[in-house]
Task: inverse folding
């Protein structure tokens, strides 16, 4: 199912566990990948909409961790000194946007997120 399909599912079935998703976003401030991965692994069989939201969180954390590693490696050719802070700021801004969207009942997928877990 695509993201639009999950939005329709939310409207018909009453949404997803907003509190759990918001707490997981806050957890991302401290553990970019590990915290959301553990929460997703525990809760993935409970509700399909909550699983989709948590899966987007895990993919977001993995994607931006990879982007940070690559930009860190690019400090060798000096472009990383610009990219690393930009990716870090984008990561935290997208977490805040995700918290706001989740509190409104929307499943948020941050830009440039690669779907590692489908």
Result:
């Amino acid at each position: 199912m695509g993201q639009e399909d999950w939005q329709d599912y939310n409207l018909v079935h009453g949404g997803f566990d907003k509190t759990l998703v918001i707490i997981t976003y806050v957890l991302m401030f401290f553990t970019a990948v590990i915290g959301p991965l553990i929460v997703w692994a525990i809760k993935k069989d409970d509700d399909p909409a909550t699983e989709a939201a948590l899966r987007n969180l895990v993919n977001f954390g993995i994607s931006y961790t990879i982007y940070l590693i690559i930009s860190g490696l690019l400090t060798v050719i000096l472009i990383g000194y610009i990219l690393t802070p930009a990716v870090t700021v984008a990561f935290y801004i997208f977490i805040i946007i995700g918290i706001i969207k989740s509190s409104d009942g929307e499943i948020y997928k941050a830009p440039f997120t690669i779907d590692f877990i489908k």
About this structure: The chain has one domain: 18-104. The chain has a mean pLDDT of 89. Residues 18-104 form one domain.
